Amino acid sequence: MSLKRVVLLFLFACSLQMAGAQDKYQWKEATSGGYTYRYISNDPMKARFYTLKNGLTVMLSVNKKEPRIQTLIGTRAGSDNDPKDHTGLAHYLEHLLFKGTQEYGTLNWATEKPLLDQISDLYDKYNKTVDPAARKAVYHQIDSVSGVAAKYAIANEYDKLMSGMGAQGTNAHTWVEETIYEEDIPSNAIDKYLTVQAERFRDPVFRLFHTELEAVYEEKNRGLDNDGRKVYETMLAALFPTHNYGQQSTIGTIEHLKNPNLKAIRNFYNEYYVPNNMAVVMAGDFDPDYVIKAIDQKFGYMKPKPVKEYKPAPESPIKSPVVKEVLGPDAESVDIAFRMPGALDTKSNVILGVMASILQNGKAGLVDLNLNKQQKVLNASAGVMSLKDYSIFSMSGKAKQGQTLEDVKVLLLDQLKILKKGEFDESLVKAIVNNAKLSELQGLESNNNRATSLMDGFIKSRGQNWAYDVAYVDDMGNVTKKQIVDYANKYLDNNYVIVYKRKGEDKNIQKVEKPAITPVEVNREAQSPFLKQIAAMPATPVKPQWLDYEKDIQKTAVGNTEMMYVQNKDNALFRLYYRFDMGSWNDKKLPLAAQYLQYLSTNKYTAEQISKEFYNIACNFSVSATAENTTISISGLQENFDKAVALFEHVIANCQPDEAALEALKGRMQKARSDNKLNKSAIMKGVVNYAMYGAKNPFNNQLSQAEMDGITATELTNILHELPAYKHTIIYWGPQPLATTAADINKVHPLPATFKTAPAAVAFVKDNQNKSQVLFADYDMVQTEVNWLRNTDVYDADKTAIVTLFNSYFGGGMGSVVFQTIRESKALAYSTYAYYVTPDKKGERYSAIAYVGSQADKMKDAIEGMNELLNDIPRSDKLLETAKEGMKQDIETERITDDGIIFSYLAAQKLGLSTDIRKQVYESIDRLSFDDVKKFHDQYLANKPYTYCIVASQKKVSADELKKYGDVKTLSLEEIFGY
């Protein structure tokens, strides 16, 4: 469960129904299977909109590509609806809706209920108690009674229910206007899924509250260590001094987190979780007539009631820039945000979407060409976040070497001046429309995209604006340059909020203190009668489908190399790849050359013109160099295949050295490197690589400063010119026939008579962990993050089944032993896991990796808790059966399609396999037992030395404490990063 991840991007969520679109996209009504539904003519998703008698909204979109269904159940209530004195309440409730009901999650409801009532009363008392000593005494009572109540609870039974039916992606999120519950289920699990969900929302029981409360505390503390989150919340607070967007944090204030009230949470549930305020969305492989009848039967018990909408007073206009500053250890940045009309203003939103794309679209926008392409800043972006009452248009940037954030601010605002003067080509609107059509086609491939779009429409307008949403791409084409210029001049002035994220110590951080919690029972072996009932429900078997690489992939010669081909029979998209068997391990300059290409002109086009040309034909290209491979990819609409491929071939063959562009790139890379050293995730990744490989490892296999300084523009362009002369495989997925494609590529893709020999690759060999040791990196943070690392045996294909089962059982999800113990029972962390990681190449070794992120004062308990599990795996036959059944369902409903077939084959080849390994795994599942899991655990994990990778503040973690786990080596940033 998590807060909704907020990213500033282009959200084409609402749109304007203009002339021309009115006839094409209209609400219509139809009846099928005894139910009447509404739909929009010419909707590419063919979505059906039902309203049941009790007011429940149901939205269905059929997609038969694979036998799975993305499901969302949402309520139009989020942190905007939190009571003023209980912020974070909607998010608390989201967590508690995973705890079960009177029917599941309990061993004995009659015995458990009075204990839970007592806990609720104690929280009410705790909420009203002020004296610290008295509060501590009440919490001790809560902890004591909770320990007794937990003996009658079955932790994570919801997750066991979902895993047992083959669900994936079990999650939920809370945001300002919504709380959404997410599952990806097999198509044959519809009845099981709906039975569980109907029971889930019937009368949820708030059990195991105090350990879940501690998980929320940990989530809050993680947010305090996230500078990006702090910038976002600061920006919202300044933009919305009245509206709850800015006044109520989704996760809640520390003061309110310390004073939870179960009765207030129950009141919130009763008020907002009613059918006329909720929607069920399903996208995937199903019969809509069957599904709507089943939903009606399962959810018909829900009773509607009036829901009080959050109707805020309008915000006063911002008349001059509001300047804010955020301090923290991460890299510096600047964000500028404007308050815009909300998603319900459809006319505004279509113009806003086009305007945002003119500023940035990834290739040919003002920010793309004037700032990023010309390397005037480290990086810059612009986008829209669409909310119901207001939208937010924002621009952000990071400074390059020798540049101030104030300089970046001026450059960002200069792009708005250009926009407001209309100094852009009106033909750009047409290109934006073509690329939107491309995005729409790509989005239709994903059940998740379909479901998310439908749910977003429900949250913002109860689905009433779907005609505008469907017409959006067409309506974009009707937006004129004058409308855009007028709109920009109306809304973009000095009425902005600017947030400077500066490096420094944030002295205002208050962490949520650790309460005294006694570990509780999780009753792994227990099963409610309800779970057994669900497991016994009949389900039509789904037959797994194995890849036959010989039949599923066609091959032909193109010059002196091979082309692998899979036909796209679904739409007009293509993807073409040139895949080279060499990467940064062969030449550390390759990634730099690949990055350099985007800034180069040719004898025919400037770098800016190249970006515009690709954008105009709705196609993309990229060159990426990983450790062992370099891949050129070209994609887009098949009608422009010849143009796109010919244009790329021209670019790579004729790109010209540009010393000024290289010097700018080097300067930006130096700044990016400095910023990486301020990022805790990057630091931890480096520490883990150090533990895995030693002082010289793939992570710090970087160009030194001297090496970078010595590289010339001619040297890099020569690398690019010569790249096609090295051995590579051609991969094509698209609608065009094999012979036609091969002939086309043969014309435009020149190949040498013989390929050049690639430089020898540097070899990285995994270390042996002969004794336990600690690798420590200091970082100014509230939390402590710990990774365990141990390298083991060489890859063996015959171990694939037991590795997969072990990961699922031991540490791979919310129902796993690790999660149940560390988070559910002991409340030591918000995030924890443990995996046995399979290498991607024959001859390489496996690695055991475990993780706990906790408060610094919990580090000792967290390490001890994980070590207990690493040394002694608890037995749960029921959990093992759930894991095995989940494995079966995953494989039975997995469909590897499109170019994924070819990349599956290449991955198999790399491991020395010639067939689909999933068949071998599937046929092994029933033979595996707990004894096999325990034998595997004891052989590779138990009582073995580990390297502890710890990133924490040295002010919060003592050196003496670290020494308990092994010899301590404090790594410098230079040792970690290699520069």
Give a brief rundown of this model.
Helix content is 42%, strand content 18%.
Description:
The chain has 979 residues and is α+β, with helices and mostly antiparallel strands. Among the domains are: 549-657 and 712-748, Cytochrome Bc1 Complex, Chain A, domain 1, CATH 3.30.830.10; 773-977, Metalloenzyme, LuxS/M16 peptidase-like (Cytochrome Bc1 Complex, Chain A, domain 1, 2-Layer Sandwich). It contains 38 helices and 25 strands. The strands form five sheets. The chain has a six-stranded mixed sheet, sandwiched between helices. The protein has a six-stranded mixed sheet with strand order 14-15-19-16-18-17, sandwiched between helices. The protein has a six-stranded mixed sheet with strand order 22-23-21-24-20-25, sandwiched between helices.
Quickly list its features.
42% helix; single chain; 979 residues; six-stranded mixed beta sheet; 38 helices; disordered N terminus; alpha+beta; Cytochrome Bc1 Complex, Chain A, domain 1; globular
Question: Termini, distance in Å?
Answer: 37 Å
What profile does the largest beta sheet have? 6 strands, mixed
Q: How many beta-strand runs?
A: 25
Q: Which word captures the global form?
A: globular
Low-confidence stretches: 2-20
Computed CA radius of gyration, to the nearest angstrom: 29 Å
What is the CATH superfamily label of the domain at 773-977?
A: Metalloenzyme, LuxS/M16 peptidase-like
CATH architecture of the domain at 773-977: 2-Layer Sandwich
CATH fold group of the domain at 773-977: Cytochrome Bc1 Complex, Chain A, domain 1
DSSP helix fraction: 40-55%
Strand content: 15-25%
Give me the number of helical elements: 38
